[in-house]
């Protein structure tokens, strides 16, 4: 029977626990493949080329990723998982809610800015893998949406943010981050524009924008 793209192996690559050496090798394979997939059509990338770029034997490559489809989807899944872990780790519960949301926006922008190859890869499509790709992306969007929405909901509950629809606010934040990364260019430092975006989003959510603006300039 023909395998479908619904199996964990195809979406995540090698399913067995990895030790540090295996993990480093898997990471090397993913990074090498990402550079190829980000800048060339899917059809032009071969497992031979990936193995050579990663400096591993072709047989070793297949131990981690049994097909080119699995490798492609593994890059996507791994990158989005890394992004989620990064901005989740930024949410220090000891910080005020405003600062937690600001940091989440900043680290998300900086994460993808430091991984331009992944951003380029993310923006491309391979029609044959559309169903599996869309499923991975939708799961990642859902995790990210829940993360940002929970911060906004807490802000509303504690009287920090205005009573807005958390989903609308979350989509506005995520859409702004994506547009900033894809279209703004590199004319200004990323840290500067990510903070400016954070301030813009936070002022729009603040229950008292004038007071919030005054507080920002007193910091």
Q: Overview of this structure, please?
A:
With 219 residues, the protein is an all-alpha fold. Helices cover 73% and strands 0% of the residues. It has eleven helices and no strands. Helix 2 packs across helix 5 and helix 8 packs across helix 9. The radius of gyration is 20 Å and the shape is elongated. The relative contact order is 0.10.
The major sheet is characterized as:
none
Let me know the number of strands.
0
* Helix coverage percent: over 70%
By secondary-structure content and strand pairing, the structural class works out as: mainly alpha
Unreliable segments of 5+ consecutive residues: 1-11, 215-219
Q: How far do the termini sit from each other?
A: 63 Å
Strand content: under 5%
How many whole angstroms does the radius of gyration measure? 20 Å
Task: Give the rounded overall mean pLDDT.
Answer: 86
**Which H/E pattern describes the elements?**
HHHHHHHHHHH
The backbone outline, from C-alpha atoms, is elongated
Provide a count of the helices.
Answer: 11
Give me some keywords for this one:
219 residues, mainly alpha, 73% helix, elongated, disordered N terminus
Task: Detail the topology: elements first, then pairings.
Elements: H1 8-12, H2 20-39, H3 47-54, H4 58-64, H5 68-89, H6 97-113, H7 116-123, H8 130-157, H9 166-183, H10 190-205, H11 209-218
Helix pairs in contact: 2-3, 2-5, 2-7, 5-6, 5-8, 6-8, 6-9, 6-10, 8-9, 9-10, 10-11
